[in-house]
Structure formats: structure tokens, C-alpha cells
Amino acid sequence: MSTSLDGVVAAVTGASSGIGEATARALAAEGATVALLARRTERLRTLADELGGSTSVHAVDLADTAAAVAAVQEVVAHHGRLDVLVNNAGFGSLTPAREAELDDWLATTSVNLDGLLAVTHTALEPLVAAAAGPRGVADLVSISSDAGRRVLPVGAVYSATKHAVGAFSESLRQELAGAHVRVGVIEPGITRTELPEKGAGDSFDLDALGEQGLLEAADIADAVVYMVSRPARVAVNEILVRPVEQG
């Protein structure tokens, strides 16, 4: 059983491509009004035109925490509420530590942690307020990674940030349960996105993976929609999604 997302305002970070774009499309298809947050304004505008309705565009680099705060405030001011936040924006690569650039490490923490913290902190009170409304719940979903459940011999900082997202989310879940803000983490395995292009040293040849060895962004978007469309009594706090052939 699922519930309609009609009347729900959902903000999606990293919405200009990959999982973020797919999630925005999936939420809109279920009736949600979507606020699109990312750096690439033209891509956001193109997507907003396709989605139509009251879709809004908010250009922001989440590595700039002040800008991240302002963007979420802008979403709430524009739509008057915030029912769902999807923390999707990410940066990282799978590079051996001795070959990695320090700038890549710092860029990874600035987006995957600092940006996520700034967005989430700003959204907390609007989400609590929304949960007190007719829907009875609000949703905070963070896209982590299966790298947040295990440790690989490369990608140390990326994996560290995703472990941190898991711990942060579980603490928030316990704290916000009484306010009826559902907190969930989705952990994708190998997925076709632009993420490997944003850093150095991607270890996966995505083109060499077969149909059952690689997830598509829409697969993760389906998981997001499932999580936020449960009846108000149901909280799905964690979803791990891997392609069939991933070890």
C-alpha cells in the first residue's frame, strides 16, 4: 500500500543528473511538487520545464554551506512548506590513498558531509512543521552508498563520508521519531551516474558491466518513492540496493 504525494513539497539536491534527476522525475510522477537544487542551472531549468507544474529551480553549490542554507530557505519561502528532503548530491572517487589529491579528499567532505549537514540543519524545523500537518509525517532521505556499509581498499574518504551519513541519519532517526519525521538512508551499489567523472581514479569500467551488473538511476529513484510513500505509521529506515552480479 502506498499513499499519494499530491500536495507534498519535495526538495532534491544534486537534481541536475543521475539519481537526483531520476528521483525528481519519480516524485513528480507521484504528484509531488519538486524543488530542484544543483549547480548546473540550465539542466535544472530544462528538467523543470519537462516536469511543469510548480517545479522550482534553485542553483546552488553545496560545497558552499552558506549558499546551501540560503537555498533551502528559498525553497521554503517559495513553496511555503517542505515535506520531503532528499539529500542526493555527492562527490568522490575510488583512488588509492597514496595517489589521491588532497583537494579531491576535501571536495568529497565538503559536499558529502558539510553540504549535507547545512541542508539538513536548515530543513529540520520546516520538516517538523510539515509533520504536524494533515499528512502526519515528513521525510528526510539521504542517498548513501554500499561503501557506507563496508570498507574498500580504495576510496577511503568517500567511504568515510558515507559511513558518517549512516551514523548521522540513525541518530536523527531516534531524535525525530517523536516528531514524526521519518529518517531513511538508501545505499546503492554500482550505479550508472556521473559520480565517477567528478573525481579521479574510478575503479569501475561501467561499460564493461552487463545488464545485471549495473543499476540505473531510476532503480534508486524507485526506492526513494517507496520510502516516502508509505502510510504514516510506517518508517522504512534503510534500503540497500545492489545489482544482482555485484559481489
Order of helices and strands: EHEHEHEHEHEHHE
As for the CATH topology, it is Rossmann fold
CATH class: Alpha Beta
What's the main sheet like?
Answer: 7 strands, parallel
Low-confidence stretches: 196-202
Give the CA-CA distance, first to last residue. Answer: 32 Å
Which radius of gyration do the C-alpha atoms yield?
17 Å
CATH architecture: 3-Layer(aba) Sandwich
Per the principal axes of the C-alpha atoms, what is the gross shape? globular
Number of DSSP strand runs: 7
User: β content, as a range?
Assistant: 5-15%
Tell me the helix content. Answer: 40-55%
Q: What structural class do helix, strand and pairing data support?
A: alpha/beta
Instruction: Tally the helices.
Output: 7
Quaternary organisation = single chain
Give a written overview of the molecule.
It is a single chain. With 247 residues, this protein is of the alpha/beta class. It has a single domain, classed as NAD(P)-binding Rossmann-like Domain (Rossmann fold), CATH 3.40.50. It has helices at 18-29, 41-51, 65-79, 102-131, 156-176, 195-198, 217-228; strands at 9-13, 33-38, 56-59, 84-87, 138-143, 181-188, 238-241. Helix 3 runs parallel beside helix 4 (102-131) and helix 4 (102-131) runs parallel beside helix 5 (156-176). The two termini are 32 Å apart.
